[in-house]
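Example complex used in Figure S2.
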Amino acid sequence: MHEEKLKQFYERKLTAEAGGGEDKIDSQHSKGKLTARERINLLLDSNSFTELDKFVTHRSDDPELKKFYGDGLITGFGTVNGRQVFVYVYDFTVLGGSLGEMAGKKVSKVMSHAMKVGCPVIGILDSGGARIQEGVSSLDGYGDIFLKNALASGVVPQITASIGPCAGGAVYSPAMTDFVIMVENVGQMFVTGPEVVKQVLSQDVTFEELGGAKTHATKSGVAHFIAKDEIDCMDKIKTLLSYIPQNNREEPALATDNIDDFNRVDQKLVNILPENPYHPYDIKEIINKIVDEGRFFEIHELFAENIVVGFARMGGRSVGLIANQPLFLAGALDIHSSNKAARFIRFCDSFNIPIITLVDTPGYLPGADQEHNGIIRHGSKLLFAYCEATVPKITCIIGKAYGGAYIAMGSKNLGTDVNYAWPTAEIAVLGPEAAITIMHRKNLKNSPDAVEIKKNLAKEYRNKFANPYIAAERGTIDLVIDPMETRPMIINALNVLSSKKENRPWKKHGNINL
Amino acid sequence: MEIKSDDIKTIFHGEIVEFDKNNNLILRIDDKKYELKLINFTSNFLEFIFDNSFYEIRVLESTSTDLKILLNGNPLTLKKHSKLAEIIEKAAGRGGGGGGSSLNSISSQIPGRVISISINRGDSVKKGDNIVVLESMKMQVAIKSPRDGIIKELKVKEGQSISRNDVVAVLE
Amino acid sequence: MEIKSVSIFSDEDASSIHVKRSDETYHVGPASPSQSYLNMNKIIEIAISAGVDAIHPGYGFLSENETFAELCEKNNIIFIGPKSHAMELTGDKMKCKEIMKKAGVPTVPGSDGVVEDVEEAVEIATEAKYPILLKSAFGGGGRGIRLAKNEQELRQEFEMASAESRAAFGKSALFVEKFLEKIRHIEFQLIRDLSGNTRHLFERECSIQRRHQKLIEMSPSPVMTTEKRKEVGEIAKKAAIAVGYLNAGTAEFLCDPHGNFYFIEINSRLQVEHPVTELVTGTDLVKLQISVANEEELPFKQEDLRLNGCAIECRINAEDPLYEFAPSNGKVPYCNLPYGPGVRVDTYLYPGCTVSGFYDSLVAKLITWGSTFDESRRRMRNALDEFIIDGINTTIPLYKTIMNDSHFINGDLSTDYLDRFSIIDKMNSEIKNKFNDKTKILPGVAAVMLYSEYIKGNINNGSSTSAPPSTFSNAARKNLNNANTSNWKFGGVAY
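Predicted assembly (1181 residues):
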């Protein structure tokens, strides 16, 4: 009796699942891109996806605008390696994946759900932009999404994957999410496209140069990761999720099958720093030795390379690592690195992930370029972020730590819980050369062999001030440790701090110098 | 689910039919039923008796599309979502845009530390010329240019430690 | 032997077996060899303060360094090996060649002296015709030997060969030798005591090599006859006497397809492959070394020695044979060493140990003995199957292929064995063919299906679960935390 109705239901279902039709799907495939449903299959565990708003269509009266079930967007929930997530995936085969009023509502709905139940949200972008035919309503759609992005920020993790174009105002949604992954040669994001740029400024740029994955991962820092293809993109999302909790009230899951001994000491760390403190070395070598099984998931790998940030596990706990990289700019702090680290700290703080900082920096990068572009403002963000964070904070000073940069890299007075230092740490207001030049300016000016004297004075300075003991005597460094015990010392601190509770005075929110 | 083996270019269709409290499963693969008894299962190690033979499986790598295992000590790679992977791989065949396709990048076959860099950006090199020298396990291994060309980009610095397959330089 | 043992270790080796087994152990320096195991002064310092009577230098590092031997002598520490002046002679391959020529020992054609710069090398190479070998005058163990097929290669290899030699031995001087083809590498184990008693303990064939590093050694050699063995054995003894040798050493020869033997060098140390000789002669060479150093006479006459059965050794290296032998290092969370009649494993591996990137890639020596070559070969084949080393790549698959290779079985060996019979390709196709039909892959397919369900959090560690997988019912979801703790490594992703 109800067979007719059932038949109708299946017909509509199949129509909805067909997206924009065979030829649109083939066109998508020929470009080497997958359809939205295929992407969902790749990302989520098999048979775990439940679709919502499958039969939503747009409400425009424009007769030219065909109605499609789903309205160019597929939303719903499913599991990724057993963890519940909500997803919204643009369907490029339907009206070019353009966003209309109803599609915007769909995304909004999914994000509200996610906030109510406390699950991460993953968005996959592949869209031509706003649906011009719907006029202002499509802009309403974007507005709704932006509001939800902002409300959900810091409540549930939001990850965006860019596997196709995204232009105009639409790019602000991913910018507000916590992590952006762009697929090389496929993902593109820019506010104004190359044609308009050519028209208005006569600048000739290609799509890739203007807003491709490479550009955003290295120059602008908009993209946190580059994936070499869609599959790699899904893999990266899965790895990322394994380090973060479901929502801001939970802690990341503890790894119970960790085989790396908590107490593992590593003799190699004793002599790992080069003899000459001015010689560069790769900080990632040290990181590899102290984290569980040497696994370090780096974020923003190609942006602001003078600082390294990423997730790792120590003693089975997920932690956020921040470390200066002496290979680039000698590990100095500058505008981009301050931004990179500050944002990362705030993410970790939002989601209960402890922060571990390794310090070896000669100071801030000098120069008119830095000053004019606001190193003062941007540098302050890093300090603000450390102070504001209430998650367990552990810092270990390995090498140089001079002046303001010493303070900025998680020093005790910023509220860090445990501060360690290696015997090779040099904590001082200024590096030896600079200090001597200032302190003995008069003597050196009049002296004939200034160079010799300067060298000797610098040596004296180094022996007297460039060590961790003065700070240790004042309790600013809690403990000078044997480098080979770095790992167990940090893990012990993490264990003790796991029940840390810290309050801040009530405020609507601070006024970090954006 | 669909599982593909590149070794014999076959696609298997498998599903779990039944699963009881004693870890006895009945699987259907390509329309035939098989019995399996689970003995041990941890995040990277399985032991089971399948079709009356004992198997030990070690999981080496698990991505969205690949599962690399050691089946009784022998390496085997099986693929999921093989059709999707094919679509993507077809596109990779086209030359890359600004990203630098694999044809232009010179990568390292081994992990190691860069102890010397033999070229500069803009240098023109011939096939077989040394690009960088790595040090690993007492050996010095040179990474050579696969073809004639001009160095567009140098991606590593002296003192940096790199992993296998990391790109060390890019040719025009 | 009731002698107390003292060992030294670098930062890398603090948890190594030798540290655990010796009576006393001392830290010698950081990981880098030049600051630890090659640091002569530090080593002597430790030796003196620990009050040792003798030092056994092993092989590699300082074992053939005459400066070190001298240093020991100066400090009244017995160096278990030849005297420093003998080492000087054997260490300088060119001088040694001259001495051998005078003693009537046949030698290999090549450059008459050390080649100082690359131009001279190019000149000699052009005359002798490529391919040529660039050898380090102070080398050994295959280090510092490079093959150059043309001038461009020669120039590049010259630089690198010098650097490598300096890194391994502290000095560099190269000489040029014509590369002979289809030759066999056959060496004789020698031992000589203070009284001048010289014995040889028969030959070892070490022809199967890669980049001039031995991979497989065995005794006896398939092409040796009793008469030839006697003849060349006597020549080997002559060589030892000519340099005034003391203690254990090896005389290496090249044997061409016509059965002519050419002396190449004397290795003035105990070699990696010495267990092969130990198994076929029933001797303990290290013990003999210690007694000779203790000024005892050799307890046997030449006629007392017998070559019994056949022994084969495979050098298990931490390299990936499927990927250009790329070095592989890191933690070894699990390993299973083979055992049984006629199976011997000399290794530093144990579950949980670490293979360091600072030292040689040799991680284990697998030696088998059988009453015939075939018995030894089958034992080796089975032992290789049982040998499990997790966490790093090893050359075990290569040896599995060789043990089944018909050319190997027929004794058709030469130093270019691997290339001649495309063994690497053979190994690759054998690995591929392991799974060349559906039934062999089925258990893998089952594993993929199970794993999929597992990562959804539906299968619980082998113990019985109350809920069926969610593939066909809305089962109660387990605690979300449990679901993803058990596979954090594979948050669905590769390393």
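Chain A touches chain C through 35 residues (CB under 8 Å). The longest strand of chain A covers residues 393-402.
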